[in-house]
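Batch job 17 of 40 flagged for manual review because the log was empty.
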Amino acid sequence: MSWLSRVRNSISFLPKRQTTDTLWHKCKKCGSMVFTKEWEDNLQVCPRCDHHNRIRAETRFAQVFDEGAYELLSSPEVREDPLKFRDTKRYIDRIKAARTTTEQKDALLNARGTIGGRTAVVGVQDFAFMGGSMGVAVGSAFVAGVEAAIAAHAPYIVFTAAGGARMQEGILSLMQMPRTTVALELLREAGLPYIVVLTDPTTGGVTASYAMLGDVQLAEPGALIGFAGQRVIEQTIREKLPEGFQRAEYLLEHGMIDMVVPRAALRERLIQLIDYLAPVREAA
């Protein structure tokens, strides 16, 4: 290494050199190379084929809340690795690895802020954390989100993204299905709306519980939504499934969800739904 390179590398304030890895983004669907800046300005949606990329919880919060401002809510403490599960590695080690990679406590985060000037509590499942899988921590965070919404007399909006229940927690993960359902009854008794936005992918026990219990069911374009996998269904019924089966557009056509909303229009649609489902009462 030359003395000039050593001096240049030692100066911390010099900007990092742009490379093909940082300058361009390759679409996972159509393979198009798009300027990263253009892709990010388009809310991480491919401008060529409209593929909605999976996004992190913090990014989702910034896109939904007014001026990207929000307060992250703390998640309840739960017992980790209650079954002392181990497959090729210990479950507790998988949790630690996921926390290191994502810098999150678990797969579901809640935040409070305003959407169109109205207070709302938003929960986001992050697929980057162990596939967004639902365990005791996710169930507890969901219940905490419902309680926060009731305390703030605000709607609870959840963005789902999950491979299903977390197998390492066995029956305890499945118990989160009735647990979250009961929590939603408390929300409805309080007269507050529950809005679900299904994102890619939403499957398994999450689909079989709180993901399909919204007062209004929205989905992002092209999102995979279902319970069992397509291959499992085909092997069970011994028939070929139709094209686009379990995609958001197919579910909309067959009445399983209410609307498919592009990411760019999602915030405005949520504002409309909040105003409709939780109108402001005028003082007498």
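Reviewer: the log was empty due to a logging misconfiguration, but the result itself is present. The first strand starts at residue 24 and ends at 26. Unflagging and moving on to job 18.
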